[in-house]
Design a protein that fits this description.
Blueprint (H helix, E strand, L loop, with lengths): L13 E5 L5 H10 L4 E5 L19 E3 L2 H13 L20 E3 L8 E6 L9 H21 L5 E6 L7 H8 L3 H6 L3 E4 L7 E6 L1 H13 L4 E4 L8 H6 L4 E7 L16 H18 L3
Parallel strand pairs: 1-2, 2-3, 5-6, 5-7, 7-10, 8-9
Antiparallel strand pairs: 4-6, 8-10
Helix pairs in contact: 3-8, 6-8
Length: 285
Amino acid sequence: QPSDYPAGGIEGRIALIQRGELTFADKVRNAAAAGASGVVMFDPPNDVIPGSLTGTIPNIPALSVGGADGVRLRERVSEGPVRVSLTFDGGIEELQATNVIGRPAGGECAAVVGGHYDSVPAAPGGSDNASGTAAVLELSRVQALRGNPERACFIAFSGEELGLLGSVHFVSQLTPEQRQAVRFMLNLDMVAVGDEWLFIGSPALQRQAQQLAADAGVQGRRADLLGASSDHASFIERKIPALMLHRSDDRLLHTPRDTADRIEAAPLETAVRLGLSFVVAFGQG
């Protein structure tokens, strides 16, 4: 936080920052505002963590190191000054990402059900987010059988792990009239591993979702994402009510061990059943 820095700033020094509470981008901006010449992030006890820098990013190097290395650095700093140098020998590669969109007859969306289908380079993405993508596909199948009276669009977003790129682009391309027509967005992100259901997003939808789940015999709680985000945030940013259905806590998130064999059938089925009840209820206003 800005208040964590000394009043006189840290001009010319490197900020060592533990993961949590804020996004990576906000941490880098705050460090630069305090005069930092670079940023090193760590997340004990995890290994090197991937991070996304979106928005206006200061022109200083920012990297992550293994959690154990970060802890050792923190211990060294507590004993006295530590000299560190940062170099960057990579480059920038431009790629094209693709959102996969299923639209109702007529093409306009009165609701959006989505989840991201990309993963981070180090992880196969079984939980994050093949589970959510599978739930979106099954919901689209069920809605088609129902005739899709809520006129929902079903979207597999790309580029979520790089900074919500797919959902930001989708919402930015909507006309004011199209944005006004979207009653809500339901985001399914990591719905098949863990032991607790979380309802994240617009407060009114959180309350309604928690009650609907309780009526179905499913316990869950309202929560916020700390130090992270997901595709529902792109809709909330444009004043579209949105809810993220999420199952917590997956300790193998963003690791090579996030494989498809970890997916549990029971919570995946529950995610689809809850998702359908949310779509029906939210679509009624």
